[in-house]
Amino acid sequence: MSLPAVELHRFTREEYQRMGAEGLFPNRVELIEGAIYDMSPQKSQHAVVVSLAEAALHSAFGAGFYIRVQMPLALGDDSEPEPDVAVVPGNPRDYLAGHPQTALLVVEVADSSLRHDRKAKLPLYARFGIPEAILIDLLQPALEVHRVPTPGGYRSRTVLRRGDTLALLALPSLSLAVAELLP
Question: What is the structure's pLDDT at 4?
Fold first, then answer.
């Protein structure tokens, strides 16, 4: 006699948002490919680096771009990640009717979430065509710059360290000092 298979329930963004509105999540969570993940509490170093990235990107991009900090992206029917920083076109009022469905650039700051960010979030961003994703690895410390999105993940990965400079795809004529983004 065979036992019935145990199925994993995958949630849609609509179900996820309804559950959040009903207060069913005791902690901060995010939806990645139908699975609901708890988000780790932020350590002070993580919070500082998120603020450094936000300030550097706000200064670099200026008017016409909205620098979102830990806010959702609506990626397909079953994902609503909250990257630490995302650069989207326009201004906040452009998104009154719904979260952005893409970004020019996303930044994830990682220490305890490093494996999850690499294995779950970066492939998701690539699948949805986000041209550039930066993973700030607080354990090294280093920046991983991921480019050339494909359905299977990013094809290009460059590691930058303190002393290096970063030219963003969306602003190739501007260089950011990696040290500005590291603790």
Answer: 72
